[in-house]
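Provenance

Sequences were taken from public entries as deposited. Structures were produced by running a predictor on each sequence independently, with no templates supplied. The record for Myosin motor domain-containing protein from Fistulifera solaris is shown for reference.
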Amino acid sequence: MDEDTDLLNESYESMTQVDPLSLLLSVKTSNHVYVKSDEYAWVPARLLESDGEKATVSIPHYRDEQAIQSDGGRGSKTSSKVVVELKDYPTRALYLQNVDEEGNLREVEDMVDLPFLHEAAILYNLKFRHKQGKPYTRTGDIVIACNPYQWYNHLYTEQVRHQYAETLVWSIPDGSCDPRSTITPHVYEASALAYRGLSVEGDDQSILVSGESGAGKTETVKILLSHLASVQRGRNAKPLPDVPHQKQHDPIVQRVLDSNPLLEAFGNAKTVRNDNSSRFGKYLQLQFDAEDPAAAAFAGKTAPSCVLAGSKCEVYLLEKSRVCLHEEDTERTYHIFYQLLAAPEEQKIKFWKGLEDTDNESFCYVGHTDTHEIEGKSDAERFQYTVDSLALVGIEGETLRNLMRVICIVLQLGNLIFDPDATDDGKTVISDEADLLALAELMGVTSTDLQSALTIRTIVARNEEFKVPLNSTAAKESCDAYAKEIYAKTFLWLVRTVNDATCAEMNYEGGRKSGFGLIGLLDIFGFESFETNRFEQLCINYANEKLQQKFTQDIFRSVQQEYEFEGIELGEITYDDNTDVLDLVEGRMGLLAFLNEECLRPGGNDKGFVSKVQAMNKENPCFIRENHFHECEFGIHHYAGRVIYDADAFVTKNMDTLCKDLQEISAKSTNPIIAKEMVNDSMVNLATSSGAIGASKAKKKAPARAAAQQKSSKPGMTASNRQNSSSIAQDTVWTKFKSQLTSLMSSLKLTRTRYIRCIKPNTFKEPLVMQHQSTVEQLRCAGVVAAVTISRSAFPNRLEHEIVTDRFKSAWKPGQLIKAEESAAENLEERPRILAQALLTSALKPLAYVNETGHTVQAFVLGRSRTYFRAGALEFLESERLKRLATWATLIQRYARRFTARSLYLKQRSLAIMIASYIRMRSKRRAYQHLRKVSITLQCWYRCIWAASVLNRLNRDHKATLIQTQWRMSLAVDGLRQSRKATVQIQRIMRGAIQRPKFRAALHERREEAKLENQLRALQRKLEEAEQARVEAERKAEERARARIEAEAKAAEEAKLKAAEEAEEKKNGQVDDGESAVHSAVSRLSSDGVSELHVDESPESQTRSLSAQQQTLMDESGRMLEYLRKEVFRYRTQNAQMRADFDVLKENNQRLMDANASAGASFSALNQHTKQLSKANEKLTAELAAYKKQAQKLGVIQVELKEELKMKQATYVAEVHSRLQYQKALQKIVDLVEQRCRDPRLAEDILRVADTCDSEFSQGTTTAASPKDTLSTPSPGGTSDSASRRDSFLMTSIRSLWS
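Predicted structure for Myosin motor domain-containing protein:
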């Protein structure tokens, strides 16, 4: 162990002596990191190697985007190695993942607790929680809400509301920990903390809800409003049952809750991104009657109560253009139009008789739509809900009728059609008088005045008025502008009416009439960047820049508070703000000033505006003006990214002035909303509300709030005040919006602001699905990444002291931990901090440096509860930790390998001894068994040799038998095969011979058939003669054989007679002479081949005449003769059988010879015929090529003569066409004959006829002087005769062919 400790010390010293940066970057490691991806923004990977410039990573490949997660690659099937450039990453280092020892993501509820807090860590933490059905996550004081696209009932019950109120409002915090750490993130914590801040601390509160369209901002505001209404009832209020849209007992609270959906009907519309998108910004100020803190403490309450007394609402930038224009297939205009048209018929008739039997397509501003339900409710159901909500704020009866008739006026304005006047093109008339009269009846004015106001413009110059007619285009634009203005002023009237019904000053009966505490809910449009960005996007992004400035300041303030609590110097914090962008927009030489100047200047236009902005801000880095931009295009570097704007119609949209004629016709209207509200831009009808609020609130703590409310009344200036303004620029849209925005920011600065950032996780509205690219873009636009950058500007990473000492305990030097424990034993409370300081001072010593003042700057700073690391310090520690773990792992492996090797050696030794004894035993036993086996083998061998000899003898006999059998069988099989082959050949030849005459008879002429028949008869005669000659020869041979046999028999008979006579004469002769005579006679008979001997002598007479010896000789001779007789009979029988076989073979041979001769003749004829066909084929091929060339030449001639042929008379043209068709028909006939005709002579004759026809046609063509002469002077006489003969012969040939 001492050697191992020395080894570790040497390894540690060697590691600490090298350059720390190279040590961090050149070591091989396997850290879990994130790398950039063009498709998925950030993807997890494992760092394999880095050299400071490039890094090699292993990127796992997942099934799809939703399967990508920080799991160490276990969810993927494959991976790939990729080299990335470190220059593309901040601090030239890859972002580390927040994973545990097994590579799994460490999910946190508050992302401030992430050890590695960056954009990728935020993305994957949000995705992990979103897939688990957790839509809310906090980042310090910011709550991030991902739209789940489904309703979680368990998150919004009355018990959950009460839990958050109890934890964050009614319970007394002990200060030891943040009470939010005991509950999960929720938007309820923002509303609960805002309520506590108002009731306990006495500070006005505000909650900013932002996000892009479809992210759930409006729904989040509803949830906040519902929770605040629940909390304000008090701690001991009994939870109400969970009933959707339950009615509250307090009518004021109910009006406040119902006012929000009421504005949705008039200010929300369906867009491509969201079916219920708010097309205006809204700041809802909830007014609370706060209890005096002293009275609440005297009553024993933990927190003063705040009763919801009322509310006031301010709206910003209503999208007026949607009244007249929207994408008909994918979008809709405002909900109220569809709701009104979907109402019951009797109700529509009460508002206006012109609505009878109308639908969406009856009005141009509405048009066709496929969407008839919003969030599960039809337009008809929502209309009834809207009418009920209007009744709650006092809009019912005649007022409701006037409101709906204003909506009808807007609809009817869209149906007017403007056409040029037939008498004067410069003037305009309304083509449909019925629509004009209906609109006039709705407004309560005369049709003449209305038409004049819509088609004529009154211009005032030097106290004189001029009537200028408008063309049809200008009149239509004026009509649309009038409709938009009516709707916008009606919307403001509705806001004022709602404020009158809900404001505490007019409705609260609890005692006070002013000095209310405020909790503001700001629901405003998020940062927007489209393919084409116009004036509306510039205003929206300007508002977001202002809000981002406040957001940045609030984040900086929270970081200040954190560092002050931890005891860290504030000088370490640096951050970038967006002051330069705001200066570009609202500065003295900014966009607002030049746009107002162009609006005031006669002839001001959009090009002049862009040109001036470029001339004065071309050096501003936030201004973008590239060479390929057109004249009205420019860009701005916003905090969320670069946006290119199209300044077309900027000046017109900024003017926003209604002409005098339309103002006058509005004043004449009998509808009070149009007559009185068209010049009212206020949002509150209280003339002295701000003053009253300021006076009463001065008695309380915050007099500044009254001043802010007084400033906020500026947007509510009356028409007379606005007319007294010294500058016309105050009437522009941007000026009014800037004034509203300034007032809003002043109000927000006086409040404690809390932020809720709504995120739209995917574009196809699917639950539990998150798209990386769009989510990251929204995080940047929402300022979450900027907040992280500010909070981690000086110290990107932070860890608790206990986590530092536990995670990096491997960095302790030998004996250093004991010393640190001894020094920390005196102060147990500071023990984690002391241990962390001792550990990090030693471990991060290579990263420490000396600054200009001579002080040593460590790579870390210790706070009260956390350790803050500078850039690169935590990565260095992770690298050192991995190397130390690798060293310890090597040592552990060394001991493990030694133990394993020794155990293996001992085991192998005992096994070797056992194996040796076993081998010796096996060797002796094997020798004995070998000898025994050899003996048995020799005996077996001998017996095998003897048996083999016997077997060979038997096999030899058996094989000889088999050979004989196979030989005889092969002879028979060969004979059978030859016979069968001959039979098949004969059958084939016979079938061919049978078919050929038929084929020849069908094709050959009668002459050749007669010739073949004569030849056949000659051959038959010859065969008959040959057969007769053969029969005669056989007969003669038989006669000769029979004569020879008879002669031999006669000779034998004579010999026997002669022998008998000699025997009779020499009876008394010697025996020897008789015996020799008999033998001679027998030998003579046998040598001559006598077939049959008939001896008729009587043995009894011979016996009497011969002696005993002679009798014996005669008996032997008789027996010999009998034997000879039998042999002769046997030979005769064999001869007869052989003769019969010979006759059969002879007959077969003759037949085969005849068949062979016939086959040879047929083969010769066929061969000759094949040669003739080949020659004919070659000839036809040559003729075909010639025909093709001739056809090409004729085609060329035809093209050359085509123009001339068109000039000829119809008769000649018809003749030429008939001749061309004749040639084509003839060519088709020739091709058909070549394909189907098998008789070469007939085909040759037909081709010859075709050649004759073609030659005659060619001669008839070439004999003329020229094609022109031929066409002009045809000779139908000779040509028609030859053609008729040619046609008749050709048709005869074809008929014979088909027959």
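Residues 876-1003 form one domain.
The chain is about 60% helix and 10% strand.
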